Fold:
Amino acid sequence: MNCHFHPNAKAVGFCSVCGLPLCERCMIEDGEIYCPDCYAEGEQVEEAEDDAYIDMELMDLLDTEDDEGLF
Structure:
């Protein structure tokens, strides 16, 4: 089986998210094996989760007992 992104290269693994066959050049190992697209999508999800956590901390700071609750 050959790499999805490089049809002339032999696949050495599969993306743990989408299952595409990957060659050594395309394979990203970060605890599991990812294709470049799924890895980039995962990074965006992590950044969004980090942003949401920061927003919740900010809301906690703004929401004090004496202001009758802004949020």
